[in-house]
Amino acid sequence: MERVEKFLKDANTYYLATVDGDQPRVRPFGTINNFEGKLYIQTGKVKDVSKQLHKNPKAEICAFKDGKWLRVACTLVADDRFEAKKSMLDAYPSLQGMYKADDDNTEVFYMKDSTATFSSFAGAPEIVTF
Questions:
Q1: Structural domain boundaries of the chain?
Q2: What is the Cα–Cα distance from 49 to 7, expressed in whole angstroms?
Q3: Element (H, E) at 69
Q4: How do residues 32-88 score in pLDDT, each as one tens digit?
């Protein structure tokens, strides 16, 4: 799991894919935080991505850096606890102008049943589950 976290942080931007009815939706994200041994992402409850994840929590993340890429297939589980939100916002102070741990909009999700695949053109894929 630590290797996944490091890759996503080093890449700075990753792409989160969700499902909207029968249409895939992909958008850039940049938050990844290890809280209580789980990897979390952050968004706002008013955003379409939040609504999509509440309807279908299965998601996939993809990131690319230095000729290598990572795909993480997972279920994203909402965690409405103040502590989880605060940990994320403490890790990303630049978000504190838009989000607060105790507002009605900030939302964090942790990855569950995750399969991470590290790939490159130079070798066989490496698979990690967490």
A1: 2-120
A2: 23
A3: strand 68-79
A4: 999 999 999 999 999 999 999 999 999 999 999 999 999 999 999 999 999 999 999
